[in-house]
Amino acid sequence: MDLMYIENKARQYHSSDATGHDFSHIERVKNNAIKIASHYIDADINIICCAALLHDVADHKLIDAKDHDVVIDMMRGWIKEAGGSDASARHILHICQNISFSTRDKNDSLSLEGQIVQDADRLDAIGAIGIARTFAYGGAKGRKMYNDNGRDTLSHFYEKLLMIKDLMNTHIGHQMAEERHHFMKEFLSHFYDECSLKQQ
User: Fold this and answer.
1) For the chain, what is the domain count?
2) Cα–Cα dist 55/52, whole Å
3) 114 with 99: CB under 8 angstroms?
4) Within a 10 A sphere around the Cβ of 135, how many other Cβ atoms?
5) How are the residues of the chain apportioned to helix, strand and coil, as percentages rounded to the nearest 5?
6) What pLDDT digit, counting tens, does each position of 87-138 carry?
7) Among candidate residues 122, 136, 133, the one with its CA nearest the CA of residue 176
8) Tens-digit pLDDT profile for residues 59-95
């Protein structure tokens, strides 16, 4: 499979994103996935890299629900154009459609490759880069940094980010998440102090 072809498609697709789902995020997820996969000799690195590059193309936060099937067909076309088999396309698309945190209770079970990509994506949601992405997304959606009604960016730490460490699939992913989790807790402590707020 021609991963450079897939990478170029993903780069073009995410070129104008300002929500923290830009191509820099995609690259970090791919690099995280490669690092995790290096500990699993049975993992198919081509499937992993392709799924990492495409994992946000059909993300429900970024596209209208009515466009979902069209976008999935577009991704399938990219994979085939890059020389991927029908089986590879099915595997990659299954990963991309079943790694979302917000749909975790409905997601299908993931292969080893899918678990690795999911861990890689979750790693980029936490730590210093995760904090930056969280506030970028909140700003893009017009959310306040914090308020009292729970519909603010700060609430996202408690609704998702602080949960991620204990939801990692792989031992290596969990190890990588530990330091990032600690950094977020330190950040929150400083944030509350500097804003003279009571910590949740």
Assistant:
1) 1
2) 5
3) yes
4) 16
5) 65, 0, 35
6) 999 999 999 999 988 777 778 899 999 999 999 999 999 999 999 999 998 9
7) 122
8) 877 778 788 899 999 999 999 999 999 999 999 999 9
Among the listed residues 171, 191, 195, 179, the one whose alpha carbon sits nearest the alpha carbon of residue 115: 171
Residue 61 maps to a domain: yes
CATH of the domain at 9: 1.10.3210.50
- Structure tokens given for 122: 């979750």
> pLDDT value at position 61?
76
Say if residue 110 is exposed, middle or buried (CB neighbours under 10 Å; 0-12, 13-18, 19+). Answer: middle
Position 200 in a domain: no
Residues whose CB falls within 8 Å of the CB of residue 109, separated by 6 or more in sequence, listed in order? none
Long-range contact set of residues 69-73: C-beta below 8 Å, sequence gap at least 24: 72/97
